[in-house]
Amino acid sequence: MVTRVLRRAVVPVALAGMLMLAGAALGGIYADSLLFRLVAGAAIGSVAVGVAARRLPSWTVAPISAALLGGYAALALYLAAGDGGLTFTVARDALANGIPRLLTAMIPIEATPDTVIIAVGAVWVAGLAATEIAVRGGRVLLGCLPPALVYAGALYVVGPNASAATAYTLTFAGLVVAALASTSVTGAKTHAAVRARALGGAAAGLAVVLGLIAATGPWVAGRVTATPVDPRRYVQPPRVDSLDESPLNRISGWALDPTQQLLEFRPGFVPAAAPSAPSKKPAQPEVRLRLAVLSDYDGVTWRVGGIYRNAGRVLPVPTTPAGAQVSESQQQITITGLTGRLLPAVPTPTRITGARVAYDAATGTLIRPEGLSDGLRYTAISQTQTPDLNLLPIAEVPSGDAWVRYLKVGQNTPKQIEGLAEHLAEGYSAAYDRAVVIEQFLAEHYRHVADAPSGHAYPNLAHFLFGRRDLGGQKGTSEQFAAAYALLARLTGLPSRVVVGFTAPAAGGAVTAGDALAWPEVYFDGVGWVAFDPMPKSDTVRPVEEDYTPPKPTPPPSPSDTPAPTAEESSAPPSAAVAAPATGGASTVLVASGASGGVVFVLVGVAFAVVALRSAQRRRRLTFGDPAQRITGAWLEFTDALRLAGHPVPSHLSATEAAGHASVLPPPPKRTGLLRRAVPVTPPAPPTGPLTPVAAAPDPAPDPAPDPAPDPAPLPPLDALVDAINTAGFAPEAADAGQADRAGEQVVTYSSALRARGNWWQRMLWNVRPGPLRWNRAPGGKSPR
């Protein structure tokens, strides 16, 4: 009797064990063992309910099991919620977003309501189905299918993010064999026909298993050394807007209102200082909060370029270089004015509580997908690495495909900047020496000003490095210093990146917009990322020309330029067609007249075509596309108008500066009376003889005073265009149709007023010049960023 009971218990125990193995395999990518405990409870509970209800009518099992599943799911959500507490909103969000949260979660995954509920529910349903098929229906082999599907799903979700589950898989196969073997055992008193059927069924089941092994064995053997597919690559991670992708653009804006409070910083205990080069000034009683790490540069914008994965409270622990000291710190941060999605923290955070975050493991950048809001409070625990800086003088920099990202620059790098990089690297073979030289050069030759315009594209950095001081060159905010350093470092072979963050008082307190800072970092083998400080150390700086004179850029030759004729060409005899006397004068005149008429006809046709094309171009720019595209079209119309007037917008100016440049254009030259009246000149009388005095010719009457021309009317304002182009450049999704309409109307009014200031022939040529048809791709036609 006891033996029979034990034999009957083999199948339920085997089914529960298979489901528990699925939980063990899936738990390999979780931060703790809570998921495995919850899955084990679901496996045991679902199988036990099925066994207990095996003698009840089959239609009653599903409702009973569903009710018990609801109760167990509530318990699982409560345990996973932890200190945060379980609310109806949390439970509803977990049920609605469990699958995408699981597939976009950062490894290791924290056991939270939205990352455990799917696994618990799937195991419970599989256990119920397996018990009904194997225990009630007696089809053990078919009953093993639901646990096998759950186990395969667990392996697929884990992908390449955990070690191979070889032991779990062999144990799973052993449980299947045990369940099948238990059903084939028959007692001695069993009827011969029953024993025959049992043995036949076991033989058939064994044959099926062997057939599956033979069919799938070669494929499985070929996949043993292959890397599993990660399903996370098929799921779209959280996205950020342009300001969060490149917060470096916000430095200048913050600098204009330095007293604006952005957040409150409260340390749990004072963290260690961030690693920096030995040449730095003494450490100040302050802590650096990292907002974003910008690793990608295309010649226009430094960007994070991150792939954010939803993370729980636990974040990946950063890799520690050999010999580096690691200190742990805790900080509490309250948002009081900071906007966007980026979350500041002391680098590098390993645990976040109080906010649901997404994390880019490559850069260590944190975001809150829902966005920041005033009053948001969270606590971060960070690990700060202090490497052995004594290794820097002999440290090398890494190379290979993994570091191409940190050495890549945009196309068409200005020759001036390349020349400066070569000049600074000349004579320095050690990587650290090159890094220090770049830092010292920027600190000694450039001035820090809070109101410098934003921008770190090639034209902006060229103006910062080589521009005239009286025109705003050679000065900037930490944006230009950090961006210029990182670019020069990459051009000299140093893997570099730009970090945006804040300086906070070490004892805690308010962090304002004036505390925003950008700094560069360089990576050294065996040391890690090291921060450098290219900001000036004093108010006295030397002109760049004292130590380096950049070569002047050579403009490309104009297609209209033709070489001067040589002496041989000038002395060559005229052609026969020119030297021969004309014959048949009447016919020649008729031919010439016809040719001239054809030329005039062609010129008039071309003029009308240009006018039509330019009209269509303006209509397309100002009326087609979304608001951001129409605003960009209005900016192109504005820059084209200034080029037609002979006052093109310099490429380094921002939108505000370009509007100021356009509002102070010099008036056209005034017409005087010198062109209206010819003054007769009396030639001297011929001599009448030797020593005969000649009467002096009387002085001509003085020219009357020119008629004063009235001063031209002031040009229309461009404030709507400036606001629109700034919106389109930094937050294109915020631009609306009304803003685009106002920008277009203002540009048309300004262009008409600018055209009216010219002479009659300038006004006539304004509409027939084909230049705007090809200027829209020229550097001067681009909108400022």
From TrEMBL:
Amino acid composition bias (Pro residues), ranges on this chain: 550-562, 681-690, 699-717
Pfam families xrefs: TgpA_N, Transglut_core
Highest taxon listed in the record's lineage: Bacteria
Keywords for this protein: Membrane, Transmembrane, Transmembrane helix
Region (Disordered): 540-579, 657-718
TM region(s), chain numbering: 9-29, 35-53, 60-81, 116-135, 140-159, 165-186, 198-221, 589-613
Domain called Transglutaminase-like: residue spans: 470-536
Compositionally biased intervals (Low complexity): 563-579
Protein name per the record: Transglutaminase-like domain-containing protein
Source organism of this protein record: Actinoplanes lobatus
